[in-house]
Amino acid sequence: MSSSTAPSAPTARIGRPLAAWAAWDWGSAAFNHIVTTFVFTVYLTGSVAADEASGSSALATAISVSGVLVALVAPVYGQRSDAAGAESGRQRRLGWLTAVIIACTALMALIAPQPSYLWWGLLLLGVGTFAYELAQVEYNAMIYRLAPPGRTGRVSGIGWAAGYVGGIVLLVICFVLFLADSPVIPFEGEGTAVRVVVLVAAVWFAVSTIPVLRMRFPFPAPPGDTEAAVGWLASYKLLFRRLARLYRDDRHLLGFLVSSAIYRDGLTAVFTFGGVLAAGTFGLSPGDVIIFAIVANIVSALGALVGGWLDDRVGPKLVILVCLAALVVTAAVMLFASGPTAFWIGGTFLSLFVGPAQACSRSYLARIVPPGREGELFGLYATTGRAVSFLAPAMFALFIAVFGAQRWGILGIGLVLLLGLATLIPVRAVAGSAAAGQAAVRT
């Protein structure tokens, strides 16, 4: 039962802390959309690398290496985060990790359009991605103290939608000011505009992080995980014991972690390689890629909001299954399509279903995580995702190598999504608001 001084779920005011929390997602669009998807990675593969093929291969390698490091560190990191217990510490750790991401983003302004700079750019991307995944462990674990009973899906959806809307606003600003064919502020020299844009992205993220570092949570913190208050080496031993216990006691939860790892890698690949495919296979100009990114974020934001609303009514699993099925079908159609119009239609459909699948995945775990172990299980969530983070990039590269054309990479991504769909089917469904209500006892 809650203590007498704790705010009750029905009366707690969550508007202001929810807005502060979602502001971080809003700001993270600077890294997700400018750096990893639509601007900097396209710049690396198209202008910095000697050619697009070698640049795409190097990009996939960097992402895979970063993923392996996250897989090794994230679960123990999350475990030790839980041991600390105090939410102020969680906010402080989120702040330090975000500072690393911002620094990496700002340093990308030094990457000139010459092949000798490629690996420096990829190093900054890898370090920033590593810090971002650990920051997500802290950020996602905060949902437990923000979502009142029956609103877990909605809160998660609002966070994802804020990220997409932040991406829209930032992309519009950068496109109009720096990246359009006739920008408001033109720059001389290849790649100069992109290097200015990453500085803008760094400032954007820094400002957007301030609210979450100053926020007060509407619900009290659970007690710290005292079992996890051990050294790093002992933390790995504890991790293996808990995984064995999870396999013995809750195979559906373990099954969800494995399944979501697979399909989330496919979802990430949709955006990671979306800009590359748009330019290389479907013939969009760099300016058109940015315009599409703006539209895609609008559609994704709407999808995340609707998905969160449906999540609280029918449960997250059904929403995820429908979204994955739609993504697989759309990818199959796009494999044989050509031209900018086909990409606009297919890419818009993909964007519509990516947001709900991402939001509901986070909601599923937030509904069932035991109090005091949020960091550990969201660390496992990050780890299982990164443990197979090589899968979609490898499949993307493999099918390009086998068939000799970039478009066949779509087949590799589609197969990863299909595998994730197949492995999710036997996982136990979590109900909508009824299941969320079970999480009402917070202390």
**CATH architectural designation of the largest domain:** Up-down Bundle
Strand residue percentage: under 5%
Number of helices: 17
- State the name of the first-level CATH class of the largest domain: Mainly Alpha
> Mind describing the biggest β-sheet?
none
Distance between the termini: 6 Å
Quick one: CATH superfamily of the largest domain?
MFS general substrate transporter like domains
SSE string, helices as H and strands as E: HHHHHHHHHHHHHHHHH
What is the count of structural domains?
A: 2
Radius of gyration: 21 Å
User: Please, what is the average pLDDT?
Assistant: 81
Report the count of strand segments. 0
Overall structural class, as computed from helix and strand content, comes to mainly alpha
CATH topology of the largest domain: Growth Hormone, Chain: A
**Unreliable segments of 5+ consecutive residues:** 1-11, 433-443
Percent in helix: over 70%
Pfam families: ATG22
Domain Major facilitator superfamily (MFS) profile: 252-443
GO molecular function: transmembrane transporter activity
GO cellular component, one term: plasma membrane
Short description:
Keywords: Membrane, Transmembrane, Transmembrane helix, Transport. The chain is mostly helical and 443 residues long.
